[in-house]
Task: inverse folding
């Protein structure tokens, strides 16, 4: 607090010296001009001190010299109006300079668009690597996870004091989980409670998992007030830092929570943002550490805030030919989607467990749902890659995908959330959780981005993947590892059978005595619904190398 007062005091003193006429206006009623100057300086100083201190304290604005430009402008204009003679001329020049600075800062978006675009240049590739179906994507939608956490809120002591905070996904101890802090539900609850009791954690890959409450006392939180507010505490410890994005909770592998926030610098003239690192705070003690992006601790997944990634996507998509083209001609402009789960981007994890922010880009032309490309931004380093997709195909964007889901389940009034584009079997494909009107997870929907007529849904992502492989074969897709694989034959006795109803058809998985697993849909082999243990079968299948090999034809001894 002392640093704010000192900063405000210096700014107020300078403002008072500019505003109050130091030379006076001659003698009036026998009083010297000095008798007016001193009280005027004191009055303006005190008023300025109160206003400037309040502004910086309650807005958490950075306390850099350039942040004072509105105060300098107001003071210079008032000083020129109140003074006379030579003093007025000097202060008029100062006012013109302050006005020029204001014009420079306020007009920055008109001339620094090219700088913004160049600052966020992305490496371009055609497609992401194929997804390994032996892994499970972080596919539990945050809305569903939040609903389950709310229902488990009875685990929190003194429940009436608190409410559930913002969710973020993270990798903790090798598992993908959602983290949500317990926050104060109001000023008086904070006044009486002083600290929050902990946070909730829930699997981001298993929809059947239940939330767990973890005890971890936190004094500095987003819902605390005055100097205990986490963002104000960060500002007090880093008065000149340029922050962008909200503070987020990150958990280390021992379960200890930390609040982090991205900081960086303006592109130019206090406009634009380029991330440089994070500020991390122990919410129990208030201890603060500052890290550059290269120094970020290993347990922190989201060092780059989703808000800053969304901003960079906007620069990259809109400003390829400058500001005015983004508003009028719109040549080569591509608009980032707003369907993400965090600040218009969706966190996803790669095969190595690194977190990325996904965004698809679409045409600025209304009524067009064709995707122009998609980006992945490393959440720790900020490095981005833009994927153009197969230029010979026209990919459907996330909005078009959600519209298909809405039409598919129009009678049930279900909707999709958190659409993410994956490379399944060398086919660009949308994977989207489907929720009912109450926010409960109903199934997972997969649709080909290039061939929207190829789509499936199932209770889990992996089940949907198995169905999707069959659908791709049926749809004639030249998919590596699917219809492009070599055919082979096998025969044997069935040892285990598992059947699952999916839509109008039944998916049959079975194990032969030699340990080989197969999967077949009754849409391809209608009589597969009669398959049982001890049956002898002859199958023609595709050698995909997967755990469950897709069957093209099957004969059951005694039935065919």
Result:
């Amino acid at each position: 607090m002392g640093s704010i007062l000192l900063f405000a005091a210096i700014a107020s003193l300078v403002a008072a010296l500019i505003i109050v006429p130091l030379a006076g206006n001659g003698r009036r009623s026998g009083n010297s001009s000095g008798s007016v100057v001193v009280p005027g300086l004191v009055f303006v100083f005190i008023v300025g001190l109160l206003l400037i201190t309040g502004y910086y304290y309650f807005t958490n604005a950075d306390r850099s010299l350039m942040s004072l430009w509105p105060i300098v402008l107001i003071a210079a204009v008032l000083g020129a109006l109140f003074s006379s003679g030579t003093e007025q001329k000097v202060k008029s020049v100062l006012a013109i300079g302050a006005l020029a600075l204001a014009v420079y800062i306020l007009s920055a978006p008109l001339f620094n668009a090219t700088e913004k675009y160049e600052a966020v240049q992305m490496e371009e590739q055609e497609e992401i690597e194929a997804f390994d179906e032996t892994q499970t994507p972080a596919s539990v939608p945050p809305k569903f996870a939040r609903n389950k956490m709310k229902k488990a809120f009875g685990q929190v002591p003194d429940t009436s004091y608190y409410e559930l905070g913002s969710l973020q996904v993270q990798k903790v101890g090798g598992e993908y989980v959602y983290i949500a802090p317990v926050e104060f539900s109001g000023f008086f609850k904070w006044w009486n409670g002083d600290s929050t009791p902990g946070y909730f954690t829930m699997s981001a890959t298993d929809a059947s998992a239940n939330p767990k409450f973890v005890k971890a006392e936190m004094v500095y939180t987003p819902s605390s007030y005055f100097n205990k507010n986490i963002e104000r505490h960060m500002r007090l410890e880093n008065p000149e830092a340029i922050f962008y994005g909200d503070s987020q909770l990150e958990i280390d592998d021992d379960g200890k929570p930390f609040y982090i926030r991205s900081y960086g610098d303006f592109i130019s003239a206090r406009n634009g943002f380029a991330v440089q690192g994070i500020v991390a705070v122990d919410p129990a003690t208030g201890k603060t550490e500052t890290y550059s992006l290269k120094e970020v601790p290993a347990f922190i997944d989201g060092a780059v805030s989703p808000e800053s990634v969304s901003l960079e996507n906007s620069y990259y998509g809109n400003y390829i030919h400058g500001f005015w083209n983004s508003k009028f001609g719109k040549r080569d402009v591509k608009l980032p989607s707003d369907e993400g789960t965090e600040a218009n981007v969706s966190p996803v994890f790669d095969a190595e467990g690194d977190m990325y922010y996904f965004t698809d880009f679409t045409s600025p032309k209304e009524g067009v749902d064709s995707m122009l490309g998609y980006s992945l931004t490393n959440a720790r380093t900020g490095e981005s890659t833009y994927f153009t997709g197969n230029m010979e195909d026209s990919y459907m964007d996330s909005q078009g995908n959600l519209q298909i889901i809405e039409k598919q389940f129009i009678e049930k009034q279900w909707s999709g959330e958190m659409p993410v584009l994956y490379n399944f079997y060398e086919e660009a494909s949308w994977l989207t959780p489907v929720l009912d009107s109450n926010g409960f997870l109903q199934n997972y929907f997969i649709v080909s981005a290039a061939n929207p007529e190829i789509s499936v849904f199932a209770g889990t992502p992996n089940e949907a993947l198995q169905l999707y492989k069959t659908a791709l074969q049926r749809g004639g897709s030249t998919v590596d590892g699917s219809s492009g694989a070599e055919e082979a034959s096998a025969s044997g006795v069935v040892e285990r059978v598992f059947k699952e109803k999916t839509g109008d058809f039944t998916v049959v998985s079975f194990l032969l005595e030699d340990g080989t697993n197969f999967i077949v849909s009754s849409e391809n082999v209608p009589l597969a619904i009669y398959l049982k243990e001890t049956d002898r079968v002859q199958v023609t299948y595709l050698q995909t190398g997967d755990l469950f090999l897709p069957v093209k034809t099957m004969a059951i001894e005694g039935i065919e």
Notes: The first strand starts at residue 123 and ends at 125. Confidence is low (pLDDT under 50) at residues 26-31, 476-484. The chain has 13 helices and 27 strands.
